[in-house]
Design a protein that fits this description.
The structure holds two protein chains of two kinds. Chain A is 33% helix and 21% strand. Chain A contains eleven helices and 15 strands. In chain A, helix 9 links the parallel strand 10 and strand 11. In chain A, helix 1 crosses helix 11. The mean pLDDT of chain A is 95. The mean pLDDT of chain B is 91. Classes of the chains: A alpha/beta, B alpha/beta. Strand 5 of chain A pairs antiparallel with strand 4 of chain B, so a sheet runs across the interface.
C-alpha cells in the first residue's frame, strides 16, 4: 500500500479499571484487576450476570455520556489537539449498542417510578448506531467524515484499520477512532441465552474457561500521518477479513486465525520473529480461545511470543474492544510494562500454551493485536513501538 | 476534511454494473400500491421468489438484506462474483430493530421472560451482512456501516475508495432499513420531528448497486459523492461545483432526486438550471436509507440522464450523489 506512516497521536479510555487509560494501566501493572462483580447500575435486571462495571454515582445514561466525554478529553489532551485540529478531523466510531442505553434506562426508570401500574412495553427510540458519531460531531463542530461501524466485537478494531487506510490514501487528514459500549441488559442476556456467559469469572485461554464476561468501556485512539508531533507508536499491518464458514466461530482448527495474522504481518513487512508480544482477543469462550490459540501456535510455532488477553481484567467491551484494548496497551507501554493476563490457572491441552503470567518490559518492537467477532469478522494490526 | 483540507468529495468515476430495489410493497424492481398502516408486509413470498427457499430462522431485516443483495446480483448472474475480489458494504440507519425489540421485551418481561438465543444472534448488527456474504461467497471486505440518514451515501463513498485503491474489483453496496411498529416510534428513530422532513408515509427498502468495471454491462456511473457542511438548500455555487464532475456527460435529461429531509424542493431553482425533479419517495416512503432506493430506481429507469440525489442530515449537513445513466 502506498502512502505515509500512520502514528497514534493520542488515546484515552474509561474502563472498570479507571476513568483514564493511564489510571487503568497503573492498576493493570500493579495487578489490581478484581474479578467481575454483580452490576450495581439501576438499569441492570439480573445480578447473577457478573460484569466489569465502570464505577459511577448517578444514572447509567449520564454515566455513558460522561464515559464518552472523558475518553475524548483524555485523548485530545494527550494529542495536544487544538479546537481547529479537532474540527478538521474525521470521526470513526465502533459500537454495537450505540445509545440503546437510553431505552433501557428510560424503561427501568418508568417501571421503578410507577410500582403500582402494569409495565408498558419497552420503547425503542434510539436513532441507530450512528447517533454516537453524531453527538461527537455536533459537540466538537467536526467537519470531517463521520462513519460508524456496527460490526459486533470488531466494530472499533475495524474502524481503526479503515481509518489508517483512509489516512494513508489521503482521503482524510486525521481520525478520531472511538469505541463505545455501555453495559446493556440486551447484550448480557443475549450472551447468557447463547450459553456463552461465564458465571464465575473470565478465564481467557484457561482449561477451566466457560465463557465471556462483559465489561463496559469508552475509548478513543487518534491516528494521523506523522507530521510535526512527537510520535512513537506506528499503526501498521491493518487487515480485516470476513470468514463465512460460521457466524459464531473463526474455525477451531486455527487456520483462519493463522491466515489473518500472516496477512497482517505481510502487509506490515514484519517477520514473525520480530513480534514482541500478542495482544490476543482471548474472550474466554471455548471456541474463540481454541481457534485463536491454535491459530497463533500454527503461525508462530515454537517461537510463540508472550500472549496477553486483557479481558480477564476489563471484560469483553464488545464493539469498543479494539479502541479500549489499544488505548490500555499503549498506556501500559508508556509506563514501560506490558501487563500479564488475568484469570488463568490451567493450561488447556488443546491450546497448548499459557497466556503471559508475568508483567514484561515493554521494549521497542512490534506488538500484534487480534480480534475475532460474531459474524465471521476478523481484524488484525500491529503497533510498532519506536 | 481530507488530507488537503478540502471537503469530503469522492471524485473517482465508478461504473455501475447493476442496480435493484425492493420497496415496502416487496415487489423487486416494480411498483405497487402500499399503505403505511398495512406495513410491514410478510416477506416470505419475496424470499421464496428471490432465494428459491425459505429462510425460517431469519427475521425480516436479514431477509430483506439477503433478498435485496441477491436481486441485484440476479441482474447479472449469481456467478458473477466468482473469482473476483468483492466487497459488501451494507448501510443501515437503524439495523435490526425487528429482532432487537422482541428480544429486549422478553428480557424485561415481569417475572422473567424467555429471550431467544436465535433472536439475539440475528439481532447482532452484522448478522445480516454475514448471511448475504455467505450466500454470495464473499470472504474479503464485508462492512456494516451506519450513519443515520446519510448511511447509504457514507457506504457508497467508502466503497468507492476501496475500488479506487484496487483492494477490491467489485463492490455490492446497499441500503436496508425496515419498518418496525409502531409508526410513532419508527418516526422517532428516524429523528422525524419539528418539521425536519417532508410529510410522507414511513416506508422501508433494500436497494443495492453492484459497482465495478465491466464495459459490456455498465448501466451508468457514480460520478461523485459529496458531503458539505453548508446548510440550507443547494445554490448556484453548489451546482457549479458538482457539475465539474458532470459537465462532460452527454445526457438528454437532468434529474434531481430529493431525499426525505428536503422540506422544499425549490422547483423554480432547479427548472431554471435545466433540471427536472423526480420524486421517488412515494414509491418507497421515508426510511434512513431511502437514498439507495432513489438512486437504484433512477439508475434502472432513467436512461441517458444525469442524476443528482441530495439529502440533508438533521443537523443540516448536505450529501450529494451525482450519477449518470447510459443511453438505451
Amino acid at each position: 500500500m502506498i502512502g505515509e506512516n500512520i502514528y497514534v497521536r493520542g488515546w484515552g479510555a474509561v474502563t472498570t479499571l479507571g476513568w483514564s487509560a493511564a489510571e487503568a494501566a497503573r492498576h493493570l501493572i500493579a495487578g489490581m484487576a478484581p474479578p467481575a462483580t454483580a452490576g450495581g447500575s439501576s438499569h441492570l435486571t439480573n445480578r447473577a450476570l457478573n460484569v466489569f462495571e465502570v464505577p459511577y454515582q448517578g444514572n447509567p445514561l449520564d454515566k455513558a455520556m460522561t464515559m464518552l466525554d472523558s475518553a475524548l478529553a483524555e485523548a485530545f489532551r494527550r494529542a495536544d489537539l487544538s479546537a481547529e485540529e479537532i474540527a478538521e478531523s474525521s470521526v470513526l466510531v465502533g459500537t454495537t449498542g450505540g445509545l440503546f442505553i437510553r431505552n433501557e434506562f428510560e424503561f427501568t426508570e418508568a417501571v421503578r417510578n410507577n410500582p403500582d401500574t402494569q409495565s408498558p412495553a419497552i420503547s425503542c427510540r434510539n436513532r441507530g448506531p450512528g447517533e454516537v458519531a453524531d453527538l461527537i460531531v455536533s459537540k466538537y463542530g467536526i467537519h470531517g467524515l463521520a462513519l460508524t461501524f456496527s460490526m459486533a466485537c470488531v466494530s472499533s478494531s475495524h474502524a481503526l484499520v479503515v481509518a489508517a487506510d483512509l489516512i494513508k490514501r489521503k482521503k482524510i487528514r486525521r481520525a478520531i477512532v472511538v469505541g463505545f459500549e455501555p453495559l446493556l441488559n440486551m447484550t448480557l442476556h443475549g450472551f447468557a441465552s447463547l450459553l456463552l456467559f461465564d458465571y464465575e469469572r473470565c478465564r481467557p485461554f484457561c482449561a477451566t474457561r466457560a465463557g465471556m464476561q462483559i465489561g463496559e468501556g469508552a475509548a478513543v485512539v487518534i491516528l494521523e500521518a506523522q507530521k510535526d508531533f512527537p510520535a512513537k507508536y506506528k499503526f501498521t499491518g491493518g487487515y480485516q477479513y470476513n470468514d463465512i464458514k460460521s457466524m459464531t466461530s473463526a474455525g477451531i482448527d486455527g487456520v483462519t486465525v493463522s491466515k489473518v495474522v500472516q496477512q497482517s504481518l505481510g502487509i506490515a513487512q514484519v517477520s514473525a520473529d520480530d513480534v514482541v508480544a500478542v495482544k490476543a482477543h482471548g474472550t474466554g469462550t471455548r471456541d474463540n480461545d481454541l481457534s485463536e490459540g491454535r491459530g497463533l501456535v500454527k503461525f508462530f510455532g515454537e517461537k510463540l511470543p508472550p500472549v496477553v488477553s486483557l479481558k480477564g481484567a476489563v471484560g469483553h467491551t464488545l464493539g469498543a474492544a479494539g479502541a479500549v484494548e489499544t488505548a490500555l496497551w499503549i498506556s501500559c507501554s508508556e509506563e514501560g510494562t506490558i501487563p500479564r493476563s488475568f484469570g488463568f490457572s490451567e493450561i488447556d491441552p488443546e491450546i497448548g500454551f499459557a497466556p503471559s503470567q508475568e508483567n514484561m518490559e515493554a521494549r521497542h518492537g512490534a506488538y500484534l493485536f487480534t480480534y475475532f467477532g460474531f459474524g465471521g469478522t476478523c481484524t488484525s494490526y500491529l503497533i510498532i513501538k519506536e | 476534511m481530507n488530507a488537503n483540507n478540502k471537503p469530503l468529495t469522492s471524485h473517482s468515476i465508478t461504473p455501475v454494473i447493476a442496480a435493484s430495489y425492493i420497496g415496502p410493497s416487496l415487489m423487486p424492481n416494480g411498483n405497487a400500491l402500499w399503505e403505511e398502516h398495512e406495513l410491514p408486509l410478510n416477506a416470505d413470498g419475496l424470499v421464496q421468489d428471490i432465494m428459491g427457499q425459505p429462510m425460517r430462522r431469519a427475521g425480516r431485516f436479514i431477509k430483506m438484506v439477503a433478498c435485496g443483495g441477491l436481486a441485484c446480483l440476479q441482474q447479472v448472474s449469481l456467478d458473477y462474483l466468482k473469482g473476483k475480489k468483492t466487497g459488501i458494504f451494507l448501510a443501515t440507519g437503524l439495523g435490526n430493530v425487528d429482532e432487537i425489540l422482541p428480544f429486549i421485551t422478553e428480557v424485561f418481561k415481569h417475572g422473567g421472560g424467555f429471550p431467544s438465543p436465535n433472536q439475539f444472534a440475528n439481532s447482532v448488527s452484522n448478522a445480516a451482512a454475514f448471511v448475504l456474504a455467505r450466500i454470495c461467497d464473499v470472504t474479503g471486505t464485508v462492512l456494516t456501516i451506519s450513519q443515520e440518514e446519510l448511511s447509504f451515501e457514507s457506504a457508497l463513498w467508502l466503497a468507492q475508495t476501496y475500488l479506487e485503491s484496487d483492494q477490491i474489483e467489485l463492490a455490492l453496496v446497499g441500503g436496508c432499513d425496515i419498518f418496525t411498529p409502531t409508526v410513532e416510534e419508527y418516526r422517532a428513530r428516524v429523528n422525524l420531528n419539528c418539521g425536519n422532513s417532508r410529510r410522507m408515509p414511513m416506508g422501508e427498502g433494500s436497494s443495492w448497486l453492484l459497482l465495478g468495471r465491466d464495459d459490456e454491462r455498465n448501466i451508468g456511473e457514480i460520478l461523485a459523492v459529496d458531503f458539505s457542511e453548508k446548510k440550507g438548500l443547494p445554490d448556484e455555487n453548489d451546482l457549479a461545483d458538482l457539475m465539474q464532475h458532470g459537465n462532460k456527460i452527454r445526457a438528454k435529461n437532468r434529474i434531481v432526486l430529493p431525499g426525505f429531509r428536503t422540506k422544499q424542493t425549490d422547483d423554480g431553482f432547479w427548472r431554471q438550471n435545466g433540471w427536472e425533479i423526480d420524486d421517488y419517495l412515494p414509491c418507497c416512503g421515508i426510511h434512513s436509507t431511502a437514498a439507495a432506493f432513489g438512486l437504484a430506481f433512477a439508475l434502472r429507469g432513467k436512461p441517458s440522464s444525469l442524476l443528482l440525489h441530495y439529502n440533508f442530515h438533521a443537523s443540516g449537513k448536505q450529501a450529494f450523489v451525482l450519477a449518470s445513466t447510459k443511453s438505451l
